[in-house]
Amino acid sequence: KAGVTQTPRYLIKTRGQQVTLSCSPISGHRSVSWYQQTPGQGLQFLFEYFSETQRNKGNFPGRFSGRQFSNSRSEMNVSTLELGDSALYLCASSLDSQGTEAFFGQGTRLTVV
Amino acid sequence: EDQVTQSPEALRLQEGESSSLNCSYTVSGLRGLFWYRQDPGKGPEFLFTLYSAGEEKEKERLKATLTKKESFLHITAPKPEDSATYLCAVVTGNQFYFGTGTSLTVIP
């Protein structure tokens, strides 16, 4: 059974640019959540998508957005990148809701220079 | 305000020296508590889910327990390969709240 796949694994961008990260959940899972992980703040919830609809959103600025496609694959977009956006971005998939086990991908390491 | 606190922040154990990690929480409407293990540069790996006070789960050298205010992850006779950061998370409503983790180092 394939796990959660995130692409790319590593990314270097310049301040002001925008970036799109991709997440393919476990087959059959309909919920995809995104997290930002930094050494100082730990794991912080960005948003959750379920059946192509954003169901929950964390306390991040509008520069952070996402979407989910009919095959449950999800993308996250960050516009006007800032140095502070450098982090490990993790995607997690769940069967249906966030009350069930979430399985994480390996993450995308984003460095903003 | 919903909050999850893990202690200690870091723990060094000799191989075979058993200990416990703590996750305390103050949330309304707990739907579940999760334990994850995270190795450097990798995503968290799911370990356990606990749903109600009194519940216990075991896997190899790990045992997780849950009360109304906290959860413990007991590590019995740890080995160097158990070295990792252990994260707990609670689900309330539809959101996960993660603690900042306990970094465990097991010395041979």
Q: What is the gist of this entry?
A:
Chain A has 113 residues and is mainly beta.
Question: Could you explain how this protein is built, in words?
Answer:
Chain A is mainly β and 113 residues long. Chain A has strands at residues 5-7, 10-13, 19-24, 31-38, 42-50, 53-57, 64-68, 74-78, 87-94, 103-104, 108-112. In chain A, the strands form two sheets. In chain A, strands 2, 4, 5, 6, 9, 10 and 11 form a seven-stranded mixed beta sheet that branches. Chain A has a four-stranded antiparallel beta sheet with strand order 1-3-8-7, with no helix packed on it. In chain A, strand 9 and strand 10 form a beta hairpin. Chain B is mainly β. Chain B has strands at residues 3-7, 10-14, 19-26, 30-38, 45-50, 56-59, 62-66, 70-75, 84-92, 95-98, 102-107. In chain B, strands 2, 4, 5, 9, 10 and 11 form a six-stranded mixed beta sheet that branches. In chain B, strands 1-3-8-7-6 form a five-stranded antiparallel beta sheet, with no helix packed on it. In chain B, strand 6 (56-59) and strand 7 form a beta hairpin. Chain B is globular. The chains are: A mainly beta (113), B mainly beta (108).
